[in-house]
Write a structure and sequence with these properties.
By secondary structure, the protein is mostly helical. It has helices spanning 2-7, 21-37, 47-54, 56-72, 80-86, 88-116. The chain has one domain (2-116).
Length: 119
């Protein structure tokens, strides 16, 4: 998302010929959700269950931030190669949601894992 937006160059877009970048980006975050909750084809026991048992607040934050990131893509209603020029506010909002999730995963969740999951 970042490179074509900052450079204002649609040729750097992830799926420039398929015009599917926004869907690809959204699915990347859905993949994070599937990994955290162990849901893809079938439900399994996910990391979310351990987190919820020991730190419900953290689990609620992670889930909310994942959903906020996914939902923020709906505001980008143009092809991403066009949106980088016409919808900068929507793109910045989505990037903000993704960065908030990234920060939570890299700090709070990582601290939780280090403290609670042993070999």
């Amino acid at each position: 998302m970042e490179d074509p937006f900052v450079a204002q160059d649609s040729l750097l877009e992830e799926s420039q010929f398929a015009h599917n970048s926004t869907t690809d980006f959204t699915n990347n975050i859905r993949g994070v959700k599937n990994a955290y909750m162990c849901t893809y084809i079938n439900d399994g026991t996910g990391l979310n269950e351990l987190v919820a048992t020991l730190n419900l607040s953290l689990d609620n934050t992670i889930r909310a931030e994942i959903d906020a990131a996914i939902n923020s893509f709906s505001a980008i209603d143009q092809n991403y190669g066009i949106a980088i020029y016409n919808q900068p506010v929507q793109i910045l909002n989505t990037q903000s949601k993704i960065n908030a999730l990234k920060e939570t995963l890299e700090t709070d969740l990582m601290d939780f894992i280090i403290a609670n999951i042993k070999d």
